[in-house]
Amino acid sequence: MRENLDTQAQLYWRANIQTVLGCLVVWFLVSFGAGILFADALNGIMLGGFPLGFWFAQQGSIVIFLLLIVFYAWRMNRLDRQFNVDEI
């Protein structure tokens, strides 16, 4: 019985870490990638009258970060229910 709980805890932790790492990759690509590294290439595309690289640096990154928070909360609630560690 104890081994099964340890295995479930390891699987839960692995899924949690994968979720966090995935969010961090998206965060890096949006903040550093789109805002700095690829800004020159993205500036050739216009969005709302502004170059896309500028838009990502000023507005897009904030929108993506908020979406990441919503996604993380949704995903962790789903994982909690899947591994039967939810509070409800």
From TrEMBL:
Which segments cross the bilayer? 20-42, 54-74
By its UniProt entry, which Pfam families does this protein fall under? DUF4212
Under InterPro entries, the record lists: Na_symporter_ssu (IPR019886)
Keyword Transmembrane present in the record's keywords: the answer is: yes
Keyword terms = Membrane, Plasmid, Transmembrane, Transmembrane helix
What residues does the Sodium symporter small subunit domain cover?
10-86
Q: Could you tell me which NCBIfam families the record lists for this protein?
A: Na_symport_sm (TIGR03647)
User: What is this protein's record name?
Assistant: DUF4212 domain-containing protein
Where does this protein come from, organism-wise? Skermanella cutis
Q: From which lineage does this chain's organism come?
A: Bacteria, Pseudomonadati, Pseudomonadota, Alphaproteobacteria, Rhodospirillales
